[in-house]
Specification:
Elements lengths: L5 H17 L2 H8 L3 H15 L4 E3 L4 E3 L1 H24 L8 E7 L1 H8 L3 H7 L3 E7 L13 E6 L7 E8 L1 E5 L1 H7 L13 E2 L9 E6 L2 E6 L9 H9 L4 E5 H10 L3 E3 L4 E3 L4 E7 L7 H15 L6 E2 L8 E2 L8
Parallel strand pairs: 3-4, 3-5, 8-11
Antiparallel strand pairs: 1-2, 5-14, 6-14, 6-15, 6-16, 7-11, 7-12, 9-10, 9-13
């Protein structure tokens, strides 16, 4: 085989990777801005040049052949290397530009991140932001996500980043509700109240409390459950009962006095707790668009300590998994 042969085929190799990743000629064509027939011809040229059948086609799906499995791995490495080259090229300019895709838990995205986005977009007119509000655990590479915010006590291995703040939870109710139903002075008093809880699993109705060395679990009841903190806040404001809320959701209503904290002498141990970590894949070359976004968000949250307990003051590489040790 001629040593010059791979060069004209680099495009076909990249198209092959896109077809395998999307599982469809038509979807690959859509993402590439091409047509299914053009994509099919590219795959045929690559198969002819390699003298190997890469894909097994059926009416329902595509499947890699035995030879295609190995070719796909190598082509995928080539595409990853090309992306690295583009990241390096971004270092040659100080101008931030391009799209940033950020995965954020729904409540954190709505109440903590979104309020700061309009100013960021004004400051950096060439940077676009796609805020993905989702509570699932995304894979940064497979889901094509640049940054992810996760609520955890320890970030997953293979990612680096910094803790933005600590998520605190509390119980809240309106003065009107408490005037009508009484003020709990002990967690066991909640048995006589309507409680508004997460409701995704049976354990969500088992509220845990701590005071000094004492720990108490109470099985609460109520007529309303909702798996979104904004909805639970709305229910609390409508005097439906005592709701569990993260502080960043409740703080404005607390400051205005329309709701009050219940059982303030007890620590409410919610399942949705831990540090809010801003995470990204380890890389030697951070694109300017990510660098300015991270710096901007960290600066904004440092000015708002009432969102929760402030995150520890650490550098961007403060957390490094064992797999990423040694990166500069």
């Amino acid at each position: 085989m001629s040593i010059n042969l791979p060069l004209p085929l680099l495009g076909e190799m990249a198209i092959f990777v896109k077809v395998v990743e999307t599982g469809s000629f038509s979807e690959a064509a859509r993402q590439l801005g091409s047509s299914p027939s053009a994509v099919s011809r590219s795959i045929s040229r690559l198969e002819k040049a390699l003298a190997t059948r890469l894909l097994q086609r059926t009416t329902r799906k595509l499947r890699l052949s035995d030879g295609g499995e190995e070719v796909f791995k190598r082509c995928q490495e080539m595409v990853s290397a090309a992306k690295s080259v583009m990241e390096i090229s971004g270092q040659f300019t100080d101008e931030a530009e391009g799209l940033i895709r950020i995965s954020v838990p729904k409540a954190v995205g709505r109440f903590v991140i979104h309020p700061h986005m309009p100013e960021f977009l004004r400051r950096f007119p060439k940077v676009d932001v796609e805020l993905l509000l989702e509570d699932r655990q995304v894979d940064l590479i497979d889901d094509h996500v640049d940054l992810a915010i996760r609520i955890t006590d320890r970030p997953p291995a293979g990612l680096v980043g910094r803790q933005l703040l600590t998520i605190d939870h509390m119980l809240c109710a309106t003065p009107q509700y408490l005037a009508e139903h009484g003020i709990p002075t002990h967690p066991h008093d909640l048995l006589n109240h309507s409680c508004i809880y997460l409701g995704e699993t049976p354990s969500d109705a088992r509220w845990k409390f701590k005071q000094g060395t004492k720990s108490i679990t109470v099985g609460v009841r109520g007529r309303y459950a909702a798996n979104h903190t904004g909805v639970r806040l709305g229910a609390v404001l409508q005097h439906i009962g005592i709701g569990s809320l993260p502080y960043f959701t409740a703080r404005h209503a607390l400051e205005q006095g329309v709701i009050v904290q219940v059982l303030p002498d007890w620590t409410f141990l919610a399942s949705y707790h831990g540090g809010a970590w801003l995470l990204h894949s380890p890389t030697r070359y951070m694109p300017p668009k990510l660098r300015v976004f991270i710096d901007y968000l960290v600066a904004c949250l440092e000015k708002e300590p009432t969102l929760g307990k402030p995150g520890r003051g650490v550098d961007m590489a403060a957390y490094e998994s064992p797999e990423s040790e040694g990166l500069p």
